[in-house]
Amino acid sequence: QVQLVESGGGLVQPGGSLRLSCAASGSMFSIYAMAWYRQAPGKQRELVARIFSGGSTNYADSVKGRFTISRDDAKNTVYLQMNSLKPEDTAVYYCNTRRSAKDYWGQGTQVSVSS
User: Fold this and answer.
1) Higher confidence at residue 12 or residue 1?
2) Among 111, 101, 115, 106, CA closest to 2
3) CA atoms of 12 and 37, how far apart (whole Å)
4) Is 89 helix (H, G, I), strand (E, B) or coil?
5) What angle do CA 94, 69, 32 make, to 5 degrees?
6) d(CA 22, CA 46)
7) Is 27 a residue whose pLDDT tops 90?
8) How far is residue 110 from each of residues 1, 68, 72, 103, measured CA to CA in Å?
9) What are phi and psi of 21, to 5 degrees?
10) Mean pLDDT across the chain, nearest whole number?
């Protein structure tokens, strides 16, 4: 069983920055890919960024060059640094990992970008 706990969301003005964190329970954190998804009101949940064991990453086109995903395997934690935030980034952000074909999700953290 894996538990994921997100933190770091909030209200920020356009152009601002936030850093989200996701702490994971369980063992062997370092061998699994971790991801951030988001879901805006009335829209489907979408992949924002993923980081694999070893550190390779991929990003949604909408966040490339603005968001950075990273991981600290010693702390069982994955981060999402979000810069140059736009109103369209407003959403609930969820941490995700898949183990043995099962998806695990955190409770989500709200990010609101507004002036």
Assistant:
1) 12
2) 106
3) 19
4) helix
5) 75
6) 17
7) no
8) 25, 18, 23, 20
9) -125, 150
10) 96
